[in-house]
Design brief:
The structure is a single chain. Helix content is about 15%, strand content about 20%. It is α+β, with helices and mostly antiparallel strands. The chain has one domain. The strands form 2 sheets. The chain has a 4-stranded antiparallel sheet with strand order 2-3-4-5, with no helix packed on it. Strands 1-6 form a two-stranded parallel sheet. The longest helix is centred in the N-terminal third of the chain and has 8 residues.
C-alpha cells in the first residue's frame, strides 16, 4: 500500500498537482515517490515498467508511450484513509469570504441614490 497522499484542491485546480503527483512525471519519479505499485496493467505486457497504468490503492496513474504520466485517476475521494483531501472552496468558510469586504456606502451609490447636481 502506498503512503497516504494529502491533496490540496487549490493546487490540483491551478497546477494539476494531486498530492505531489502530476501529469508529465516519469515512471522513475513516480516509483521514487510511491515505490512499487499494488497492481499494474493496461497492456499486453507483464512488465511493470511498460504497463499502461500503475495502481496504488484507489489511485491509478496512466502512462504515455514515452513513460510519462498523462492521467491520474480515482473515483474514491473522501471514502478512503489513503487520500486526505482539504476541502478548500468546498469547506465551511470559502476563501473568498476571508477577503471580501463590502464597499462603503459613500463609494457604492446606485444611480437612484446619487444626489442630483
Amino acid at each position: 500500500m502506498f503512503p497516504p497522499l494529502t491533496v490540496r484542491l487549490h493546487d490540483f485546480i491551478t497546477t494539476g498537482e494531486f498530492g505531489g503527483l502530476r501529469p508529465g512525471m516519469t515512471r522513475q519519479e513516480v516509483h521514487e515517490q510511491l515505490g512499487d505499485p499494488d497492481d499494474f496493467g493496461g497492456s499486453c505486457t507483464r512488465d511493470m515498467m511498460t504497463a499502461g497504468f500503475w495502481r496504488y490503492g484507489v489511485m491509478e496513474l496512466h502512462f504515455c508511450e514515452d513513460n510519462t504520466v498523462w492521467m491520474l485517476y480515482t473515483d474514491h475521494i473522501g471514502d478512503t484513509a489513503a487520500l486526505s483531501v482539504d476541502d478548500w472552496i468546498l469547506g465551511p468558510e470559502p476563501p473568498f469570504r476571508m477577503c471580501w469586504r463590502p464597499c462603503s456606502p459613500s463609494r457604492c451609490r446606485s444611480p437612484s441614490t446619487t444626489p442630483p447636481t
